[in-house]
Design a protein that fits this description.
The protein is of the alpha/beta class. Helix content is about 40%, strand content about 25%. It contains twelve helices and twelve strands. The strands form three sheets. Strands 7-6-5-10-11-12 form a six-stranded parallel sheet, with helices on both faces. A four-stranded antiparallel sheet has the order 2-3-1-4. The longest helix has 14 residues. The two termini are about 30 Å apart.
Length: about 290
C-alpha cells in the first residue's frame, strides 16, 4: 500500500483540481487534499507507474511528486542537515565573505557538497582561510546574514508535538548550529567546533570532524534510543555528506539538493519548502504547529 503525494511550494500554490484529476484518472486511487492548492495525496494508486505518470503531467510545473509507503508513514525520528537545508545559507561562505574571499570558498563548498572533494580536507582548507576573524564578526554574521529556511520551524514543532525526536546534525559549526537549533526547536544539535585563540579564529576545527558517517551513525543510534525501526526515521539534506543518512532513513528526502544527491534519494523536493516533509507524512495543514 502506497500513497502518491503531490506538493507545491506554499509561496506558489500551483496545484489544482484539474491537475490532480488528470493524474488520478491514469493512476487510480483515492484523492485526499491535505491543503488546497498546495498538497494533495492519491491513496493506493492502482498503477505500477504512478510516480512516472505524475511526473509526465507535472513536467514544467512547480509541483513535486513522491510515492511513499502507507505503513509507518509518520516518523518518530528526524535528522536534518543545517546549511542550505534548515537555513538558507552556507555559513562558511558567509564567514568567508567577511574577509573578502567568498567566491573562492563558495567554489570549494560547492564541489565538496557535490561529492567532488574529500569533505575533511575541504573543511580544513576553508576554515584555514578565515584564520584571525574576530568572534564579534561571527556574531554579526549569525545575526544579520543567516535566514531560516521556510517551513523549518513548522516541520520540527509539528513532529515534536506528535512524539518525534529531532536532531540537527551539521558538517558546519556549533557556533551556528546550537543557536539555530534552539530557535527552530530541535531537541539536540551536533556540529563541528571552531577553535579560537582568545577572540580570534585559529583557522582550525576540533577533532573529530562531523561528517557523513557522523550523520548516518546518529540516525541509526536515535532509532535505537527511541525504540523505533529505521522505517520510522526521516532524514533530510542537500549535499553529498547527507547521502548516506538519506539512503538509510525510512524516508530520505533530498531538499533542493545537489544533482548527485537528488538522483539517488528516494524522495526529492525541488519546489516545495520544508513543510513538504509534513505533507509526505500525511499531515494536513490544520495539524501544523507553527
Amino acid at each position: 500500500m502506497s500513497v502518491l503525494c503531490l506538493i507545491a511550494n506554499p509561496a506558489e500554490p500551483a496545484l489544482d483540481d484539474k491537475m490532480v484529476g488528470a493524474i488520478q484518472h491514469e493512476t487510480g486511487g483515492e484523492i485526499n487534499w491535505l491543503c488546497q492548492r498546495i498538497a494533495c495525496e492519491i491513496i493506493s494508486p492502482k498503477s505500477a507507474d504512478a510516480l512516472a505518470i505524475a511526473h509526465q503531467h507535472l513536467a514544467g510545473k512547480p509541483v513535486d511528486a513522491a510515492l511513499v509507503p502507507l505503513t509507518h508513514r509518520r516518523k518518530r525520528v528526524l535528522v536534518a542537515d543545517m546549511d542550505s537545508t534548515m537555513i538558507d545559507q552556507e555559513c562558511i561562505d558567509e564567514i568567508a565573505d567577511a574577509v573578502g574571499i567568498k567566491a573562492e570558498v563558495a567554489a570549494i563548498t560547492a564541489r565538496a557538497m557535490n561529492g567532488e572533494l574529500d569533505f575533511h580536507e575541504a573543511l580544513r582548507t576553508r576554515v584555514a582561510l578565515v584564520k584571525g576573524l574576530e568572534r564579534k564578526v561571527l556574531e554579526e554574521i549569525r545575526r544579520e546574514r543567516i535566514t531560516l529556511a521556510s517551513g523549518g520551524r513548522a516541520l520540527v514543532q509539528t513532529m515534536k508535538a506528535y512524539g518525534a525526536y529531532t536532531s540537527l546534525v551539521s558538517g558546519g559549526f556549533t557556533y551556528f548550529a546550537d543557536y539555530y537549533a534552539k530557535r527552530i526547536g530541535f531537541d539536540e544539535a551536533i556540529a563541528n567546533v571552531l577553535e579560537f585563540d582568545g577572540e580570534k579564529l585559529t583557522g582550525t576545527v576540533a577533532d573529530p570532524i562531523v561528517d557523513k558517517t557522523t550523520k548516518l551513525t546518529r540516525l541509526q543510534a536515535l532509532a535505537v534510543e527511541q525504540s523505533v525501526p529505521m522505517s520510522m526515521t526521516l532524514a533530510v539534506g542537500d549535499g553529498a555528506n547527507d547521502l548516506d543518512m538519506i539512503k538509510a532513513a525510512g524516508m530520505g528526502v533530498a531538499l533542493h539538493a545537489k544533482p548527485v544527491v537528488a538522483e539517488q534519494a528516494a524522495v526529492r523536493i525541488d519546489h516545495g519548502d520544508l513543510t513538504a516533509l509534513l505533507y509526505l507524512q500525511g499531515f494536513e495543514e490544520d495539524d501544523f504547529v507553527r
